[in-house]
Amino acid sequence: MKFIAGLILVFTAPQSWGAPVSMDYVYATRSGGDSTTSVPGESALAFQQPSPALTESEIARHLKGDILFGRGFSSGPDSDLTGLGPVFNNNSCTACHARDGRGALPLVPPGQEWVMLRQNESIFLRISVEDGTKTPRDEPHGWGGPIAVPGFSTQLFHLGSFGVRKDFPGVGQARVWMKHEFSEFTYPDGKKVVLRKPIFKITDAYDPRIYSSDVKTSPRMGTPMIGLGLLEAIREEDILALAARDLSEEGVHGKPNYVFDVQKKMRGDAYPVSLGRFGLKANTPSVFHQSLGALNGDLGVTNYAFPIESIFGTALYESLGLDKAPAAVEAKDQVADDLVFYSETLGVPERRHIDDPIVIKGAEVFHQVNCTSCHQPSFTTGVAKNPAFSNQKIYPFTDMLLHDMGDGLADGRQDFEANGRQWKTRPLWGLGHTQTINPRAGFLHDGRARTLEEAILWHDGEARYSKTKFTQLPLADREALIKFLRSL
After folding, report:
1. Where does the UniProt annotation place the signal sequence (predicted)?
2. 147 by DSSP, 3-state: which?
3. What's the CA gap between 69 and 91, in Å, rounded?
4. Are strands 348-349 and 36-37 parallel, antiparallel or unpaired?
C-alpha cells in the first residue's frame, strides 16, 4: 500500500472477476525492462532508439537496418535496393511507420468529399473473399488464412510501377479513395464529442471481380515499431493463461489467434501454424514473418522467406510479359535479415510524470473501469533468441489476444481465427509520444480516432462494460485517465 497526495493505492487489487491484477504499473518507469530508453520530455525521436541492452556490434547492425528501413526501394536495375513492385502500397518501410510511429490518414482537401490514396500514405486495404465457410487448415488454403480475391490477392495494391497500367500510369490494381463520416457522442453529463470514421471506395480496377458482393475490405494503418522483440519473447503459456480467465460477467472473452508461420514452413514442419502475436488481428507469429511479409506484400519486394510476387499468376502479372515462373528473389538475404534485426531491437521509451497526482489518480481510474481486463499491464518475458530480451519485466499494456470490439469497429473480414469483429489488444506503451512523433497520427486500426478520448469512445462489444464505466465518470476522472495514458 502506498499513500501519496491523499490517494491510497493497493498495489495488488482484485478485479471484479478473474485473477488479481498487480498495480505496480502505477509507479513503473522502465516499460521495456533493460530495453527502456530515456529521451527528454515528449520527443519526436522517442521511438527511434535502439535497445540499450544491445552489444556494440548489435547496435552497429541495428543502425544498418535503420538506414534500410528509411530508404526507398526502386523498380530500376541500377539501385542496390531494387525489386519494387510491379504493384505496391509504398516504396519504403518508413512511409507507413513514420519515425517508427503511427501513420495518419490522408488529408481531404477543402471543398472535396473524397481524396485518392497516393504514394507515402500510411494506410492500405486488406481484401478477401468471405463465403461464409471456415477455411480449412491445410496448405492449399493457406493454413486457414483469408481467401484471396481471384485476380488480386489478400491485399489491394493502389500503386504500380511504370507501365503496369497503360490506362492509368502509376496506378496498381485499382484506385482507392477515402472520405470521412462523422457522428456525435454525448456523455451523461452533456459533453459532446464528434467522432470520425474513414470510408473507402475502389474505382478503376483492372478486373471487376473486386466489386463483387462477397469481397470484404479492411483498412490497415501503420503501427509503432517499438518493443517488438520483447513482445515476441512473452511466453505463450502466459498469453493462453489470460485467455483462460473467466471474465464473462464483464463480457470479456479474450481469444488467441493461430496463424501460418513461414519459419516453420522453411524448416519443413508438417503443420506450420503458431500463435499469432503481430498485426492488427494477431495474424503473424513473429517479427521475422511480419517484417518480410510486409517487404513482399506492401513493397512488392520478394525475399528468401516470401520469394513469390503477391500477384503472381494473376492476369495483371501475366499482362506485363513477366516470366511465368517466379524469378530469383529481389532483396539480398543480408538486407532482409538487417531489416528484421532492426525491427526486433527498437527500445521502449520510459514512462514520465509518475509522481503527478493526476497521473496517479488516472492510473487508479484505469483499473477502476477495468481497462486492465484487456490491456494487461505487465509480463515477464521468457527465454528469447536475443538474450537481451530474456527474463525482462515489461509493461506493454496488452494481453496479445483477440476481442470482439463491436459493430462500429467491425470490418466483416476473417483473418485465420479472428472474425470480422475481433481485433488484437494494442500495446499502449509509448502512447504519450505518438502525436509528438507524428502530429496527425490517428489511433485504432484505421487511424480514425484523432484523440485518445475518441479511441475510447469507439470501444464496444467486449469493451462496452469498461467504456460505459468511463463515460459515467466525472469529467475530472476522465481527464485523469487520459493523462495517465499520456504518461506511458
Report:
1. 1-18
2. strand
3. 10
4. parallel
Phi and psi of 184, rounded to 5°? -130, 135
> What are the backbone angles phi and psi of residue 307, rounded to the nearest 5°?
-85, 0
Output Rg (C-alpha) for the chain, integer angstroms: 22
What residues make up the domain containing 410? 2-100+223-486
The reply to whether 281 falls in a domain is: yes
Which grid cell is 417? 481465427
Please name which of 422, 424, 423, 413 lies closest in space to residue 135, comparing C-alpha atoms. Answer: 413
Terminal-residue alpha carbon distance, the chain: 22
What percentage of the chain reaches a pLDDT higher than 90?
A: 88
On whether residue 464 sits in a domain, the answer given is: yes
Report, as an integer, the average pLDDT of 183-199: 98
Do 286 and 302 contact (CB within 8 A), yes or no? no
Give residue-wise pLDDT tens across range 226-284. 999 999 999 999 999 999 999 999 999 999 999 999 999 999 999 999 999 999 999 99
**Backbone phi, psi, residue 77, to 5°:** -80, -10
- Sorting pLDDT into bands at 50, 70 and 90, what band is 2? very low
Taking every pair of Cα atoms in the chain, the longest distance, rounded to a whole number of angstroms, is 74
307 falls within a domain: yes
User: Average pLDDT for residues 68-87, to the nearest whole number?
Assistant: 89
User: Does 183 reside within a domain?
Assistant: no
Residue 436 to residues 41, 112, 265, 318, 355, Cα–Cα distance (Å): 10, 28, 40, 45, 22
Q: Which residues contact 455 (CB under 8 A, 6 or more apart)?
A: 443, 444, 449
Domain count, the chain: 1
Partners of residue 220 on adjacent β-strands? 124
Residues whose CB is less than 8 angstroms from the CB of residue 56 and which lie 6 or more positions away in sequence, other chains included: none
pTM passes above 0.85: yes
Reported confidence tier of residue 15, pLDDT bands at 50, 70, 90: very low
Q: Model confidence at 21, in pLDDT bands (50, 70, 90)? A: low
